[in-house]
Amino acid sequence: MHLYSYVVARDYGFAPNPFGGVCTLATCKPEIRQRADVGDWVAGLTSAADRATLGFVYIMKVDEVLTYDAYWNDARFQLKKPSRRGSVKQLFGDNIYHQSPTGVWHQADSHHSLDGGGANPRNIANDTRSHGVLVGRRFAYWGSAAIDVPQEFLNFNGHSIRLNRGYRSKFPDEFIRAFVSWFESLDAQGFIAPPFMWQRQRSTWARPQT
């Protein structure tokens, strides 16, 4: 069992996507999506730009790892395909990639597309460095109501979940056991509060490069 921590630099409800009773990480962070396996844990931390004190945007246990094509075709996840004419949740759908028989990547009009809906080559190149989509049913997504990181995990015998960029995964077993035990003690489950960026004017939302 491994624990991966990283900073959710732009919390739009896109990466991760916590809707529909399932938390998915299908874009961004290709290194984590490449390495994480069933039974591992992923913790998304708040950015310094969004919150003065370090908090958790979400925590999830990985229940499945799907390929992009499997995710795209799976009947369970059709509601996670984006729609510009649907609800705000649908606007940030993360089920956006599939390949043609010749291996060409197709990107649905989405948060990672260019203005106007065209495919964004830079985001395609970054996202598809890993074909893995992480799926978690045991999760808590706090979003704009992020909870503080306990001091215990900021200095746990010299190990800290805190980081500035990239991701962290080299935690000792005792750190991971303590972390999972703490999380389970919260009895938190599912979508709890809207994404941080939804507090801003909708007109200021953009499709950021990642």
Automatic annotation (TrEMBL):
It comes from the Bacteria. Residues 2-200 form the Nucleotide modification associated domain. It holds the Pfam family Nmad2. InterPro entries: Nmad2. This is Nucleotide modification associated domain-containing protein. It comes from Simplicispira hankyongi.
